[in-house]
Amino acid sequence: MTLTYDGTYEGLLSAIFETYRLRLNVERIVPEYDWINNMFESPVHVATNQVWSERVIAGIELQCSKKTTTLLYHCFLSEQPTISMLIYSFIRKAMASTIDITDNYGDETVLKLHQIKKQISREVHRMHAFVRFQRTKDDIYYAVVEPDFNVMPLLSTHFLKRYPAQKWLIYDTKRHYGIYYDMRQIDYITFADDSRLRFRQLNNNILDESEPDYQILWKSYFDNVNIPERKNMKLHLQHVPKRYWKYLSEKRAQF
Amino acid sequence: MNERIKEKLEILSDAAKYDVSCASSGSNRKNTKDGLGNSNGIGICHSYTEDGRCVSLLKILLTNHCIFDCAYCVSRRSNDVKRAAFTVKEVVDLTINFYRRNYIEGLFLSSGIFKDADYTMERLVRIAKELRTIHKFNGYIHLKAIPGASDILIHEAGLYADRLSVNLEIPSEASLKMVAPEKNYQDVYKPMNYLSREIKGLKEEKKTIRSAPKFAPAGQSTQMVIGATPENDLKILNLANNLYKKQNLRRVYYSGYVPISSDARVPMLKQPPIVRENRLYQADWLMRFYGFKVEEIVDDNHPELDLELDPKAAYALRNPHLFPINVNEATYFEILRIPGVGVKSAKKIVAARRHGKLRFENLKKIGVVLKRARFFLTCADKEFKMLGKDPLLLRQLITAPSSKKAAFNQLSLFG
Predict the structure, then answer these.
(1) Were B176 and a residue from A229, B27, B108, B170 both cysteine, which residue would form a disulfide, CB within 3.0 to 4.6 Å?
(2) Residue of chain A minimizing CA distance to B105
(3) What are the extents of the domains in chain A?
């Protein structure tokens, strides 16, 4: 039996709730846009139910801990194809056990979830590090990102705490949405046409006039901080894999 | 753009890079609703240099003019280099603007000694004070405590900075006198001891009095240059141990001497002693996180760290009677002693074994480096043929490069 849901976290939890409510034996739970139609099977779609998803979270929190529910949510953001089944499998095991299984690193499912969470945490940390703002003429600090996973929902708290007194915007060009802070609250936004945003560097007539100067100063600083006698490209690439080089203006040849 | 600022930045960041402290973690400074920045918990590395170090702070000298002539320093008085000096406004401006763009976690400010210690220190404090009070800056600030500066200035620095450091530079006073005759240990220990007393005192006060000021919440650190002078690892690690225990320092940095000086008082190394530096950091970690006493790592019979093996493996080979350790029954600290088991793995082992006895495949998935660990532990697999080997043979097996292993595998396919 296959269940589909609308692709949101609440949707997945609603589907999992259904399996308990109707005592179903499911082989697959997939987002509806991932389901490939075939004539042998028609999946059952579960509508997202806020009350149901909240009950599942409350159940896990009671059985395990708040850390566990955070673990599951973060893993969901990884967008990996097997993640729905991993979360389902974990919840089944957790509810059936008498003790909190979250730190049973001997179990396949638990271990895999921790590994995915680690990847997400690393990506969030990298975003904290590599988001580079550019100041526009309207005094908005603007940045473009392309994270490996859907980590945008996890970035707002950090940047809000750090920059409460300036307007900023972080845009995910892969997933076509962003977060915008106007000094009062954070909103999710999209641009109708974001094709121009693929070029990380904004046009000079939108930028504040001091902006190119600060980028040049930064590159200058970066070049002089390197100690050539200790060159170690292997270690360097371990820290900054090549796919992150596009974020770092100091690595671009144009200056 | 002012070309002069760019030139100053180039000169004064180039001169500052040999002070390797780059941490932006360990503080607990919250932001205000109208402030700029915060600095709590883990540090963030915003970029990385090609030598593998991270760039998390704007690390600059206020000026590279200096009245001293220390043999190992690129800014020494007798060296013919371009000299420059920032104004207070320029440093503040750079810090704020880099910070707003998320280029840095904060400022690391050092300086050559201009006129005298107090004159220089006063300027450093002024910059930190302006950032905090006028610009409401709550990001990370690391200030150098200039050796010989007065207590009043050091105190003021502690009110505005997250971390303060004063560098020992040379691991013994005798050697220091040979390469930097104008310097002495007393000038270094005076501010260091003052700071450790103040930090301890105000921390106690904060427990009972809410309004007690924040004072250097990220503590103190220091730096020792390795390889410029003849001290051995025994001396260096004992000195570090004392600094951690007596002066309560948060970090000691070991900076492999980069031969930038043609002065006859320091050796002309072909390259910096990077492997030795790495081993010293590993030994430092053993003292701070693995519960090792310094005499277990180095002693009179083994005054130098092994360059081929990490210090924990070297310890295990010297003490075969303490192994094998049963991962399913031993204590956390005993498990920490197994070569190839780090703090994270040890914690996972202790957590996971509550659910069931661990076997080699579990250990591998947890992240234990079995290449080393398998000779020193037992688990539920009850495999004993790796144990009880001769230490000399073990050393060969552990240090052998992995390509040899591949060759063995190939042979056995056709054997």
Answers:
(1) B170
(2) A129
(3) 2-123, 131-209, 211-255
